[in-house]
Design goal:
2 domains, Hypothetical Protein, Haloacid Dehalogenase-like Hydrolase, Chain: A, domain 2, Rossmann fold, about 260 residues, alpha/beta, 14 strands
């Protein structure tokens, strides 16, 4: 029976220097050779999933931007964008609390670079995206699926309250990175939507993840696998905890479930 395996990117397929273990490359090759689906499932927007070495691993589809952009075999199946009014509300709240933000869309990422002077992530975005990294301007019409932000000294629960129930907010500890998107949409909802479209039964679903935005995904699939280097919240949501990313974590997780 064909299985569907969903992989987070950062901290799961590659480390935070974007190094992919050789065992991970071999594991993905074996998984697909055995006739199973391999999908990316990331909080990253589609515009920030461009790395040739990542895509060269070979994937049947992509669930991006926490479930709000879905592709299968290069064809877009689903896209959910924030409205101009929703973006305006989020920006108002974040600016009130002096929280720098990154707007993430299917084609472009928007950032106010003066908020991130010498920030390594924005330097990476500038180098990686080139002209696809745009400036935030007051009158622009943005195509945005979600936002990321840096909490710094702000009160996360106050920000959550002021955003309101229309939005979900994930807080990544201990670095204080926020992810903000439309309520009810997550990696889990993206997986459910894709599996429904392809006729994949829930009992045939697996997912690998390592952090707070993987919790719903790990709990939703039939078999959630947390990386050994993952956070406690990810491990607690998973059915199985594999080894660290650089201790053949992907390979060992797939072996555990006899997928390779």
């Amino acid at each position: 029976m064909k299985k569907a395996v969903f992989f987070d990117i950062d901290g799961t397929l590659w480390d935070f220097k974007m190094n992919i273990p050789e065992s991970t490359k071999e594991a993905l090759k074996e998984l697909r050779k055995n006739g199973h689906y391999a999908f990316l499932c990331s909080g990253r927007s589609r515009s920030n999933i461009k790395s040739p070495k990542l895509l060269a691993l070979g994937f049947d589809g992509i669930v991006a931007a926490c479930g709000t952009h879905i592709e299968f075999e290069g064809e877009k199946l689903f896209e959910l964008l924030l409205t101009k009014e929703q973006i305006g509300h989020i920006l108002t709240v974040l600016r009130k609390h002096q929280i720098p933000m990154v707007l993430e869309g299917p084609h472009y990422i928007y950032v106010d670079e003066k908020d991130f002077v010498d920030d390594p992530y924005v330097i990476y975005l500038r180098n990686e995206l080139g002209e696809n990294l745009k400036s935030i301007t007051g009158t622009a019409q943005y195509e945005v699926n979600k936002l990321s932000a840096e909490l710094r000294n702000a009160d996360a629960e106050l920000v959550r309250k002021e955003l309101g129930t229309e939005f979900d907010m994930i807080v990544h500890e201990p670095d204080g990175i926020l992810e903000i998107g439309q309520a009810g949409h997550s990696k889990a909802s993206g997986i459910e939507r894709l599996c429904t479209a392809l006729g994949i039964a829930k009992e045939d679903t697996y997912a690998f993840g390592d952090s707070a935005n993987d919790v719903e995904m790990l709990a939703f699939v039939a078999h959630g696998i947390a990386m050994g280097n993952g956070t406690d919240v990810a491990k607690n949501a998973a059915e199985f905890v594999t080894t660290d990313i650089h201790a053949d974590g992907i390979w060992n997780g797939l072996k555990h479930y006899e997928l390779i």
